[in-house]
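Give me the fold.
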Amino acid sequence: MRYIEGHDRTQGALFPERLDDFIGDDHPVRVIDAFVDCLDLAALGFRRAHPAATGRPAYHPGDLLKLYVYGYLNQIRSSRRLERESLRNIELLWLLKRLNPDFKTIADFRKDNGMAIRRVCREFVLFCRDQELFASRLVAIDGSKFQAAASPKRVMGQREVTESLERLDRRIAEYLERLGDEDDDGPGDSGDGDGRKALVALRERRTDLAALGERLETEERNILTDGEPDARKMQMSDGRRVPAYNVQTAVDSRSHLILHHEVTAEPTDNRLLSPMASQTRASLGGGSLEVVADAGYSNGEMADACEKAGIVVNAPANRSINNHGDFFDKSAFTYDSKADSYICPAGETLPRKTYSSKDKLYLYTTDACSRCALKPRCTKAKKRWVTRHFFEEALQRMNQRVRDNPALMTLRRATVEHPFGTIKRMTNGGRFLTRGMENVKTEAALSILSYNMLRAINILGVKPIIAALR
């Protein structure tokens, strides 16, 4: 028996094979090519969308955009890796028509065209909307923490900044003294050039640290990340607290396509429900919208804003745990909406006494507690206080919808976990390569564009998408 044998490497061919022969008609890379070719790159804001009349020719921004979309779709995000792949990857050889841009050109393209790249992500969402892939009008909103490029060791407070500045001042003084001694000795081969370069570097470092300290005071923050102040220290799913960003997505419940996304520095989701829901409806072109979210989005003010905008929200209200021990729970008190007061288990009326604008709570109590026979079962304090949220009715309606239809929470999990799982697989477990909010937003847009493109291909197929794009 013989093994299957390959072709002779030295064998010539009368008719050389074409690159196009290696890429099937239903290959996903053809969708990238067709989609980018149909974009108006100048209108989207890409630099060098029109060639310059003089000077050395530049790479077409469409070719570099294709390279990045392909890279993020195939877990190749580094500019150096993309440069190597463009030389040896048959799919990239076809996509770029054998172009081989260097890593600096590739990296600069992403840095210089961030806003335009984010608009491209939006363009593909609009294309999917035109293909009627968002017909359900029911979306799930969720957030996930993506680790920043900065190391957790770079997180600093005012004390760490002050100590670092003191150390730098001592080192700068030592260099100045050393350079002064060398000047006194006269010219010679003392190597003071290296010392002066080190002194410049130390002074630049001191300037950066001083700016970090000023930002801590200005923003009234306890900590900031040195080298990436836009990132916030957040708790990851594995319990670690590291510099990270909170990536928000609104996912269609039927197609699992991401309609809208945002990258924020908010450590929690509590204040993001209304902004995400409003922007999602705008992505759908207006009309009705129903949203399902988890308890992390429980916020009466946000729920009320959504109701006023005509958006139906389904989310469990995140109530605080009863801290009264064996005392009467708040549920034992009946609210009288007409009198704006509570009736306690003893039948006494608790009128509204004050409010907390910070916590958005009304507070109710009565002086009758001192002579009440049920006081030992109610409170140890002089009075029992009952709180009510400014937007209590909106919270109750939001929570009641989930109680009436528990299957919505199962649908939520099945909808939002899929996109985040895929994107984190594409991004090395959910870690950005670039630094700063604007650059991170560009990375997120590339990741979500790649995910949406892959998902659309799975739903519609390569050939129908290309036909629709043309």
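The CA atoms of residues 34 and 467 lie 9 Å apart.
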